[in-house]
Amino acid sequence: MQKTTLFLVLLALGLGGYVYFNEIHSPPPEETETTAEETLLTFDHNEVQQITLDREEETLTLIRSNEGWEMIEPEEAVAEESAIVFLLDLLTSETSSETFTVEKPQLEAYQLSQPLVSIKIQLEDETEHTMMLGTTTFNEEEVYAKIDPKKEEMQEVKIIPIKLKEAAERPLADWKEEASQEEEETNSD
User: Fold this and answer.
1) What are the pLDDT digits (tens) for 102-152?
2) How many CB atoms within 10 Å of residue 151?
3) DSSP structural state of residue 175
């Protein structure tokens, strides 16, 4: 065997041994879980007292009472709890795929100076969270959003899942409990 062949065989064995011991025998990297800091909003669902959805066509206000959730605007009705829980789950479990900053005048390009939908959450301790939803991204799978906006020149814009916008834009009937809708239909006959 020639010296160069022997050298290449030893080099290959050395590299193979290095890869084996460093890659195979090394402990697996720790999995990163979604932390509260990474989710869009952080609050306990039981602390929510009021939800206001300012939408293009109407404002929807839902309040928690002793009996459960009630709609007080645009009309009074018993609210559909599953629709509320779904929205709150999305707000506290979804994450942003990207965050960037823009100057205030640039917010118009994302329709965030006058958002298509604004979600306001009021907690027991009077803390308020606001999420403003603008236009969809070019692939129409995500939407531009401002979360708890500040009055600074540079504004943080997040790209979030479009299902939040879809949940907030549900038809009015989806926010009413079915028994409440049936009662309304009976009264109108």
Assistant:
1) 998 899 999 998 899 999 999 999 999 999 999 999 988 999 999 998 888
2) 6
3) G
For the record, the structure tokens of 71 come out as: 């709609």
All residues at 6 or more sequence positions from 141 whose CB lies less than 8 Å from its CB, including other chains:
161, 162
Among positive and negative, which fits the CA dihedral 140, 171, 175, 74?
positive
Within 30-120, where are the H helices?
Answer: 81-93
Residue 103 tokens, joined? 């100057």
pLDDT in tens, 3-54: 888 888 888 888 777 777 666 655 554 443 434 447 889 999 999 999 999 9
> Is the CB of residue 158 less than 8 Å from the CB of residue 98?
yes
Give the DSSP letter of residue 29: P
87: nearest Cα among 181, 173, 178, 174: 174
What is the CA 69 to chain-centroid distance, rounded? 22
CB of 91 closer than 8 Å to CB of 14:
no
Extract the tokens encoding 77: 């009705």
Which value, to the nearest 10 degrees, does the dihedral of the CA atoms of residues 58, 64, 66, 68 take?
A: 70
Distance, in Å, from the CA atom of 35 to the CA atom of 132, rounded to the nearest integer, reads: 22
